[in-house]
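#lab-general

N.A. 3:47 PM
ok so I finally got the sequence cleaned up, no stray characters, all 64 residues accounted for. can someone with queue access submit it? mine expired

B.Y. 3:52 PM
send it over

N.A. 3:53 PM
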Amino acid sequence: LERNKVIEIAPAQGAKFDPHLHQAISMVPAPGQEPNTVVGLLQKGYTIADRVLRPALVTVSAPN
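B.Y. 4:20 PM
back already:
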């Protein structure tokens, strides 16, 4: 896929939520983590030539 410029979007836990690359499915309380950071990855996303084909589906930490 990389040969055709298709790149996987798979944010790590604790990564900052980016609305251009991620789609938040739910917000959960996560003590010890900053608000609006990725807590879990539900489905990987993909880009092609810097355009989003499918955003990554993520769970985000709620504000305290």
